[in-house]
């Protein structure tokens, strides 16, 4: 009887050692989590000064968006809204760089394009609206390129905001 109990105990121990997952887990190396380095942000004071390059950049962005709007007017509503927002935004940035006298001369052009923006955002582009918007865009493009290109306004840029 003692032999039977001893054999059963030995068999139980063998089965436990062979099939015991916790024993297997004990002897396998555990993966170490990488130590995360804390991010350090250095705060710098960023000063944006009006420069000729900044004016030229906004002028070229404006010209690009304006010609894009003229090419694609009425084909895609989202594209029209994006174009007119960028046009007005770049003109406002150009206006901020100019001296007050020259900025006042740009204001009527911006107002005309804001009216176009209201039409594009609030109304369907019917044939009459599309014709009005197209003629306004073409006229404003000609006038702004004529009066506000860099060679004409290089002496009328601000030194400080």
Main attributes?
161 residues; mainly alpha
**Integer-rounded radius of gyration:** 36 Å
Structural class: mainly alpha
Order of helices and strands: HHHHHHH
Proportion in β-strands: under 5%
- Terminal residue distance: 102 Å
What does this protein structure show overall?
- The protein is mostly helical and 161 residues long.
- It has a domain at 52-156: Four Helix Bundle (Hemerythrin (Met), subunit A), CATH 1.20.120.
- Helices cover 71% and strands 0% of the residues.
- α3 (52-72) packs antiparallel against α6.
- The longest helix has 23 residues, at 100-122.
Write the layout of secondary structure elements.
Blueprint: H1 2-19, H2 21-27, H3 52-72, H4 77-97, H5 100-122, H6 127-147, H7 150-153
Compose a concise summary of this entry.
This protein is mainly α and 161 residues long.
């Amino acid at each position: 009887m003692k032999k039977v109990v001893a054999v059963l105990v030995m068999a139980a121990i063998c089965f436990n050692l062979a099939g015991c997952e916790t024993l297997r887990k004990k002897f396998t190396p555990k993966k170490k989590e990488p130590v995360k380095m804390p991010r350090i942000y250095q705060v710098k004071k960023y000063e944006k000064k009006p420069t000729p390059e900044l004016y030229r950049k906004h002028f070229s962005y404006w010209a690009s968006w304006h010609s894009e709007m003229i090419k694609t007017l009425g084909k895609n509503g989202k594209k029209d809204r994006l174009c007119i927002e960028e046009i007005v935004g770049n003109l406002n940035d150009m206006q901020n760089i100019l001296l007050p006298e020259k900025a006042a001369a740009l204001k009527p052009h911006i107002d005309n394009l804001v009216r176009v923006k209201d039409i594009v955002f609030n109304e369907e582009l019917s044939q009459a609206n599309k014709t009005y918007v197209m003629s306004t865009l073409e006229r404003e493009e000609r006038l702004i390129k004529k009066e506000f290109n860099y060679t004409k306004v290089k002496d009328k840029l601000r030194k400080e905001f």
